[in-house]
Fold each of these.
Amino acid sequence: MSLLVFANNATATLAGSITNTALTANLAPGTGALFANPTSGQYFVARFKDAATGTLDEIVWVTARSGDTITMIRGQEGTTALNWNAGDLFINTWTAGQAATMLQQGQVPFSSLIHIGTDTSSVANTIVATVTPSITSYIQGTQYNITIANTVTGGTQVNINGVGLVQVTRADGTPLTAGDLQTGQEAVLVYDGTHMQIANYKPYSGIFIGSDTSVVANTVTAVVSPSITSYSTGAQYNIRIANTNTGASQVNLNSVGNISLVRADGTALIAGDITAGQEAVFVYDGTKMQIANYKLASNVQPSYTANTTYYVNASTGSDSNNGLSSLTPFATIQKALDTTAKYNLNGYDVTINVAAGTYSNIYLRPVNGSGTISLIGNPSSPSTVSIVGTLATAIWAQGVKNYIINGFALSSTGPNYSGGANDPGSGINMIQGSTLSVSNMQWGQTSGPQLYCQQGSVAAVGGTQTIVGGSSGNAGITGYHIAASESSYVTGNGGPGNPSLNPTYAITTSVSYAGAFIYAGFSSTVGVTYQSLTGSSYVSGPRYLGNWNAIIFTDGGGTSYWPGSSGGTLLTGAQYG
């Protein structure tokens, strides 16, 4: 189990009798609310005690509560599951087992402390700081939080408390590049025994920031930081606008060159789409600069008035069609997504049916209004509908909500880190709080993690997950099947409370994962539990890796729950259970 939850002075009685094999029980009406309400990965400890003699005891772990009904794991902490009668006591009590999970004073090693300081250097690329608690040497695994004084322009070294200069690197061991650390940033440094690794270097989000200096409308001119020498597909640029546009517009960043500035559907801007003082969000699509938050000068965004279905067919479609029937389909998935983004969902759902074929990588679009967007390939045979990222992630999700992805084969030929881009070459890459449901997928070979959930994003996995390729890793990220980082969460569709909705896994050929099959880091949780998994012997690489207070939850599945040719590793506060 994972996290304990508590309630004060919670005592109730059973509403009816239960046997020693029952996994649910009903409490006296209205008393359930006295107790904690565990969510996925949580539980509380309670005790049954007989009302007649007060001598019979059983300790249970309660994993869910719905009103007055509890779901529990019986006979814990050396007690035996017993039959209980209506009126017997149910108490949220303190036990030795709970006490044993708590860290006591004196148990915290010095190396696990976080040392805090401020950079006092007056030059870039050298960090000098005095930290508290004080140190006299660098200890492997120790974390140092340093407020940076100067934006770096390249390779960087650090000297803490006069211990000596050591190289600062990214998590993959490569030297820093311009902009990886910036003035005022709270940098997280971890000593690996040789170098000081930085866990939160700035290009991680791929966002470049600048202000428009143009004095005329319809031309945006800015210098962004970190600096760029070319535009990279998928890179995001946040620019403060100087002048309200009056029509079609163009942008020139860092003198790279003028390119057209367009709406998300590729059409030219109209008067008032960007306004003076606006924080505009630009994303380069390989040809033009799309603006994700144009103002819609009419102040009225068209809305759906009914559930809507679009059709996509790579063989028979055209992006000049309306996409509203199988006889007039779009040719690309991106066209269907861009069309949907022009409308407010208005409480309705959009379905995009994709015919068999091979499609290029796509960018999911943020959409206003409540409702879901279902991207449907072939759930019973996902291998027939492929999305291939050519030096790119197959499906990129940035700040999107309530998308359902069902029935696709995903693969990527490699990452894209050129010109400041930060594309890991994953099957699905989720950033900036995105939420997705992912079902009935075929996972082919990728460079980055096959399912990469970052920056507060949430993914739910269901249906049949077929694995026919592994993840090799690259200079920016190691290879995993599932990776969760920066307070993100990956779970099964049903969670512990409804396992029938959780996925089944089928691994059908030899695959290799450079990092591990499962990764959770930086206060994230991977809580996927499966109904069944076949083909585990095909998997090479470690079973799991957890670090920085992350949780890998298997509902008691044991250390061999996930496949791999070697065991798993837990570092720096990570938990597994």
Amino acid sequence: MVRTRLLSVLLAVLLVAGLCAATRAQWVKDGVSLCGATGWQVSSAIVADDSGGAVVIWRDNRGGADYDIYGNRINASGHVMGPSAGVAVCVAPGDQADFHLIPDGTGGAIVVWRDSRSGYKVYGQRIDGTGVARWATNGISLCGTGGYQVNPRIVPDGTGGALVAWSDSRSGNYDIYVQHVDAAGNLLLGANGTSMCVEPGDQHAQDMTADGTGGAIIVWIDNRGTSADIYAQRFNSDGDALWTTNGVAVCVEDGNQSYPSAVPSGGGGAIIVWQSTNAVTTFDAVYAQRFDAGGGVLWDPAGIIACSSWDHTSYPRAVTDGADGAIVAWYDFRGSGEPDVYVQRIDATGRTDLWGTCGVVAFSTGGESGIRRLLADHMLRPADCLIAEPTPARHPSIGQKGLCRLGIEFTGVPAHGSLYPAVGVSAIMEAMELLGYVKGLHGREFPVDDHLKEIIARSSRVLEQEFKIHDVSDILKKLSFNPGIIKGGEKSNVVAQQCTLELELRVPWGCPMGSLIADISAQARNGKVVVEETNDPSITDPSCPLVTITCDEVHKVWSGSVFPIVQWAASDARHLRLHGFNVIQYGPGEIKSLHAVDERVTIGSLEKASRIYHGVMERYMSA
């Protein structure tokens, strides 16, 4: 969910990037405070107010353990229109969550949410441009029947009201129901709404778009078959389904489909994008399909692939391009394995090469656009930092080995292969000889103080148990290396004149980085060494408050022996420590499945991690 929300925010930023410089200049550095109340204000959402400003809502626990919903309005000049603590949207007992909002056309907004005051129900509220609630205090119930109502989605009806859809378990499994509420808060489809899909299996509402004629198109994940598929339905303001009963199949291919996103197209039609997981390879791909006003398919029946680099793309979101096409954003793992955000425009005919065959990078999580950019621009100030990366349950990570990435270009002397090694110098063999030298470096040990030696020894015992690897201490104490890519040669019967080697080394504590690079460079005969990236080994003081507080909170949840460890993997922690941050890593996840295609986390460990994070944050807030 966090990733899909990030893509939605990114697309919104792209669309409003044209605001004039004069307007931007009136906003203060580091942002304008919308709420100064005590407690936590989290999970915000925003819509335009039709006059250059915005309405923002958020979850708020100022009243105690339960989260309520508050909001505020800010104008185009950055002036907060409401009270400094915000306006209460709903402060009923129980948690209010999973909210969505639309402009109400008068400078306010209509909000819907999942409400737990009496089981999971869907409620709504209209807040006008002056911050006054126009419907009942704490919202109106959009469905009064039994079962649970969850996953609410909302679009404008074009007349000041809203069309709302949700997943509904009144019949046992989850079905799709809808409601039409007018500007005054009257329910136009009865007290309990009307059904759009009541097929066997669960249907989970995912996204909805207005159809341009006062109706809407709802898209959901459907489990009527043997796997998760995507279905959609168009309905009018009277709640009449306009497409096939129980929905039109968007994608029912083998494997699981997920994360659908819909945008209007062609007066009553829509473009729907989704993530499809191949049942054999388990690779993810982003697909798209266009439907006409009658629910007919306009592109390839199986959908079109939004990006030709299709094997590691996921979590798509879409906005309209204003010409019956769509702009699609997704997470993309084609490069270093870290997710970048790519975007592509798809026109009304289904062309997917308008911005290149693979889309264009909108945001990179590494390199110049990632954490190093934020640090270089002084957008982050030294502080205590907890990074939510997977670690063993009872052992937060306080340090990582160093990193050294080298690119080496070897030049040989060509000759006919039948004469080698008597004649010619093979660039490939030069690379192999250097790798032999690097392999020998693995046998070296480097001096560290007794305190760090004990931390490494304890870390080794933990990681041996987690990974079932014998003598992990060698990995932590010694230089490890990987020749990731070797390219070279011209033909099998010609002595290689060129060879390139991409070499990554993980550097232990006590190993001087400069001397290491100098030694390798000296051994690279006929080779040019280019240093691509270096980071010294790093560690956070295990006695600092960040470490002691985190370990204390872990012990409260997990009990048993809790202590910090160091690890061999690199992370953004190294960049933060270099700039004066105290950093600790702790998070849920099955360690043995890290970076695998089936990387996973149990719900139980996720819940426990959230309690630990909450405990750490409370300790810092009360300090």
